[in-house]
């Protein structure tokens, strides 16, 4: 996993952080959208952050609707197992989508 750092309010954070909405606690690893920002760059950042959070939320919703294992807590699993499970679910979902897409293809009944 690549190292990361975040500079926020004059402080450097060297740990990973998670995009979240207001229902989560205010921990140093949880980065919530900051409302009532002044300045176009800060407003743009908040808008993009919120869009990314919503995309991730939708993606997890789709995975959770197809794979029960994604709904379960992962507190006691190691990182490699979690990575393998998520990668497998994403690949399987892509295969399912590709397979279902082929079902809508027109059938050529005029064979010679």
From TrEMBL:
Name of one Pfam family that matches: Plant_tran
Organism domain of life: Eukaryota
InterPro entries named in the record: Harbinger_derived_prot (IPR006912)
Spans traversing the lipid bilayer: none
Protein's name in the database: DDE Tnp4 domain-containing protein
Organism, as annotated: Brassica carinata
Lineage: Eukaryota, Viridiplantae, Streptophyta, Embryophyta, Tracheophyta
